[in-house]
Amino acid sequence: MNIGIIGLGLIGGSISLGLRKSNFGDKFIGTDSNHKNATHAVELGIVDEIIPLQDLILQSSVIILSIPVDGIEKILPSILNKIRSDTVILDTGSTKYDICNSVFSHPKRSRFVATHPIAGVENSGPTSAHSDLFYKKNCVICDSELSAPDAIEMTEKIYSTMKMRLIYNMTSKEHDLYIAYISHLPHVISFALSSTVLKKFKNENEEKIFNNMIGSGLTSTTRLAKSNPETWLPIFISNRNNLIQAINVYLNQIEIFRDLLKNKDFHKVDRYMKNAKI
Amino acid sequence: MNIGIIGLGLIGGSISLGLRKSNFGDKFIGTDSNHKNATHAVELGIVDEIIPLQDLILQSSVIILSIPVDGIEKILPSILNKIRSDTVILDTGSTKYDICNSVFSHPKRSRFVATHPIAGVENSGPTSAHSDLFYKKNCVICDSELSAPDAIEMTEKIYSTMKMRLIYNMTSKEHDLYIAYISHLPHVISFALSSTVLKKFKNENEEKIFNNMIGSGLTSTTRLAKSNPETWLPIFISNRNNLIQAINVYLNQIEIFRDLLKNKDFHKVDRYMKNAKI
Questions:
Q1: Model ipTM?
Q2: Among B78, B118, B81, CA closest to B96
Q3: Tens digits of per-residue pLDDT, A27-73?
Q4: Which residues of B touch A159 (CB under 8 A)?
Q5: Are the beta carbons of A237 and B270 separated by less than 8 Å?
Q6: Are the beta carbons of A195 and B229 separated by less than 8 Å?
Q7: Domains and CATH numbers, chain B
């Protein structure tokens, strides 16, 4: 069975390595618009061969679409046009509504499975890929009733091979709302905190002070700001409305905290902290 | 040489374990207002003996004051009243201005060294203490010109033994302003994010969805919200003005991001992310 990976970055690369580790699939073929990533992917054993997209579509029994979400939305319909009738195609995008919407009325919609394996690190590219990225992490399958039973079954096999926990019964619309809070908002928070400290410590002397005083608290709260803007801008655009809603709820929470502090309502600051345990 | 540790939690416990690992000091004596912590500290080999505060003050060549910052501010003057003329006392509080101010005119001010070893984990208590907590981390010594040279020298020995990097030339006032951005603000951010997701996923079904979708991004951004309110409320109170300033700068950064997204100014969202690299 040939597995075709479109997009040989962190996510596509890690899926490939995870499957190969368990001897799932026979030949792994791939394509990436970034020539350097493609070369690395072969060198790292992520895929056996780089082949043109059109050939990959025809030669694969399973296609994994792991490129930025705007790219997925753009090419998914045309890939569906061309795939064999028994091929399964799944995507790994961090937003699902726009992608599902782009093929909602497509005659081959049932060959497509909309998934979101919730795992990642702040680094990107095939050199960051590793076979255990998804181990015991969660994976959401959206709008599963629109996919053919055999396509769902194949998707389950793929993610179970990597020991992911599968989550069903979620529409792409619900997914995007929830993930705005759980993943996209933390990224915005991290970018904004990095931006804040860069504003505060901007000259050479302040920069030195900053480097002398940085501790693990700031490091973990700004980790996500190292994420690749090429991946994240399309996510923010696609989930814009939900994300703005989440940012507003969060802004309100920060303002409540600030005002309690301002008003010296320390008993309530204490309760705020005690209640904020997840 | 007897080392006296007042406050046998994460910080005091880790200093003690770090020093003992390198055979620094002879007998370690301690006190803690929490009876359970005191018992654990002996069981864990953090101190040899629990003795009353008054005895600890008289028997120690070095006193390490590692209790919440409001407690330090309160008892430091009376400890200074009672110490021997050759004893060194240092504190480990996360704010420094109020503490330094409380003994500014004290006749024995020079026996005190104001330090902030910048390390910590979200867990607290002696059971979380470990000998490597401070390894290669930064430690600020504030207002060092107000401490006697031999007191500074002893402090340097203590922190160097644990392989900390020492930072000088900072007033307690400067320290509090910088640390508001570097440490206290990330804590507020983390509490507010936890609070936001708890608001969004509040009923049983939503809670289940939340647990199914949580990923490492949210986990690292809310790690600090697990911190002990008993430690952090006094820090926020003591550094209230600087922290309010830092929160306002940060709120502005979040609002800028939200408005760019709202206005579909995606080119600037991209630039915002690219510039937010620390």
A1: 0.94
A2: B118
A3: 999 999 999 999 999 999 999 999 999 999 999 999 999 999 999 99
A4: none
A5: no
A6: no
A7: 3-170 (3.40.50.720), 176-275 (1.10.3660.10)
